[in-house]
Specification:
It is a single chain. By secondary structure, the protein is mainly α. It has one domain (8-56). It contains 3 helices and no strands. α1 (8-17) packs across α3. The longest helix is centred in the last third of the chain and has 18 residues, at 38-55. The protein starts with 7 loop residues before the first helix and ends in a 10-residue tail after the last helix.
Amino acid sequence: MFCCPVTPDEIARIIHKIPNNKAPGNDNINSKILKKVSDVIVGPLTYIFNLSFTTGVVPDLLKLK
């Protein structure tokens, strides 16, 4: 494994630190909505990030261009 596993609490803290005045990204999801649904998406995000760390595979949509 290249990185330490992330925890759901760590991801939730990062989501809640996103400023509300930031413009939405390519997905058009603004930070206020992301914060409201964070309890639903934290589990799947944790799984995806940790799977990516253990396999070394990063989905193309998560890569910076």
